[in-house]
Amino acid sequence: xxxxxxxxxxxxxxxxxxxxxxxxxxxxxxxxxxxxxxxxxxxxxxxxxxxxxxxxxxxxxxxxxx
Length: 66
Ligand SMILES: [Zn+2]
Ligand SMILES: [Zn+2]
Description:
With about 70 residues, the protein is of the alpha+beta class. Helices cover about 35% and strands about 10% of the residues. The strands form two sheets. A two-stranded antiparallel ribbon has the order 1-2. The chain has a two-stranded antiparallel ribbon with strand order 3-4. One zinc ion binds next to α2.
């Protein structure tokens, strides 16, 4: 795969950040530059870019322990 031969892997088109995984780069672009928060709290609708941060919020703030 040619892509993995590139030093730094995938680079962001908006800034100089680089990522080893394409999916990480796409997530970075969506959350940092497009202000998307794909993971949102089902209770207060606050959004996060990372699923673990969202889960932790739900557990801590709303007291939901699964
Ligand atoms: Zn960027
Ligand atoms: Zn919430």
